[in-house]
Amino acid sequence: MANPRQTSIREGITRTALVAMGVLTAFPVLSLVNPAQLESYGVVDPDPIVLTLLQHRGVFQLLLGAALVWAAFRPGVRVPVALAAIVSKGVALGLTVSRPDVLAEASTTVLVFDPVCLVLLTALLADVAVGRRRRVREGVPA
User: Fold this and answer.
1) 36-65: string of b/e by CB count within 10 Å (b at 16+)?
2) Which residues contact 107 (CB under 8 A, 6 or more apart)?
3) Contact 42, 108 (CB under 8 A)
4) For residue 142, what pLDDT is reported?
5) Predicted local confidence at residue 2, as pLDDT
6) Helix axis angle, 114-138 relative to 4-26, nearest 10°?
7) How far apart are CA 80 and CA 56, in angstroms?
8) Helix-helix angle 78-97:48-73, to 10 degrees
């Protein structure tokens, strides 16, 4: 059986990581009120349609970020939220690294933050799976 103190520490680390990932993931929503924020992604003076699409993307990033924060406090939603974040961040990273011209101008967010999130979210899924297996072995209801 798991040590309650270790479980509490693990839960605190998980919550902190999810909240941090969520807040940082939501950052692109600032482009709605300050389009100049897009310069941090290498986008300067975008065409109106590009600006609209990037601002719309910012809203989706806000939703994903909010879901990650929600998952920090609702363990029951962690698996689907982690899977959604892994798909979203994985596709963004895959598109970036598969296009040399984009990779050359890629932001730190895509090249550092997103891979770190992918590792942490995969570890979260593994931890959930191991915990479920342990509870099944011990005859504890999931």
Assistant:
1) ebbeebebeebeeeeeeebbeebeebbebb
2) 40, 41, 42
3) no
4) 59
5) 63
6) 150
7) 23
8) 150
